[in-house]
C-alpha cells in the first residue's frame, strides 16, 4: 500500500483572492491564468477560492504558490494524516 502525498490546506479563499489581486510581481492574475501557470484544473482554483475544497497535495500547493510568487506557508497550512482524519501539523510548543 503506497502512502498518500503530503496534503496542504488553504488558509482561506479570501487570502487566495487577495494574493491573486497582487502577485509577487505586483500584477493581478485571473483564476484561469493561475490554473494554467500552476498546471492545475481551473475548477481546483475556483473550489479553493469558494471554500468548496480546502486541501491539495503538496505538489499542487507548491505550484500554486510559485505561480503567485509567494512562499508556501503564506497560503497553505501543512496537514498530517492521523488515521482517516487530516489535522494541522503542530510545531513544537505551538497549539493547533
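Q: What amino acid sequence fits the structure above?
A:
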Amino acid at each position: 500500500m503506497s502512502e498518500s502525498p503530503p496534503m496542504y490546506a488553504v488558509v482561506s479563499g479570501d487570502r487566495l483572492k487577495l494574493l491573486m489581486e497582487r502577485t509577487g510581481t505586483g500584477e493581478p492574475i485571473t483564476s484561469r491564468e493561475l490554473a494554467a501557470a500552476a498546471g492545475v484544473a481551473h475548477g481546483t482554483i475556483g473550489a479553493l477560492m469558494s471554500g468548496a475544497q480546502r486541501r491539495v497535495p503538496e505538489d499542487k500547493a507548491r505550484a500554486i504558490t510559485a505561480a503567485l510568487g509567494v512562499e508556501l506557508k503564506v497560503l497553505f497550512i501543512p496537514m498530517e494524516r492521523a488515521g482517516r482524519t487530516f489535522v494541522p501539523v503542530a510545531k513544537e510548543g505551538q497549539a493547533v
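Q: And what stands out in the fold?
A: The CA atoms of residues 72 and 87 lie 18 Å apart.
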